[in-house]
Amino acid sequence: MLKPIDVILFATDLTPGCQQAYEFAVAMAIRNKALLYVLYIIEEMPESIEGRFRGLIGKHQWQDLMQTKKDDIHKSLTGKRLSSQVLEEIQHFCEKVGMDEDSCAFHSREVIISAGDIAETIIKNAEENECDIIVLGAQKGMLSKNSIGSSIKSVLKLSPIPVTVVPAAVK
Prior knowledge:
171 residues, alpha/beta, 5-stranded parallel beta sheet, two-stranded antiparallel sheet, 7 strands
């Protein structure tokens, strides 16, 4: 028997190709009355490059720069929409797919900003937050409609829980 989906991890790189995967993750959270974690990973620079930048601009300015980047990412992930607008969009979505109000409870969305290797950080956050599924978005490919990169392949290999890869919208 399949385990119920109570906690979902959606990992994004904030590119337009992830929009369809985000919509899928929200729809899954609504249908399952699940908690949705939205994860953005700041890929770590090699120590030698980071050390050079830190040396050029100074330790405190480097820390300020990194904090500003995290704040900007957090704003992008949480959106600038009012909560009433988000609730209206969720209600409209529920009506569109024929779900009643009780079935359409969207518990919450938590934002996580982390640093490290992409695949390892996704797996680590999924385990720490006791997620039941990971949702990732494929990117538009140059030669084919969608492309699955090495990070997604690594997550598929390492993950002890189901992983769903949602193709980017092809226009």
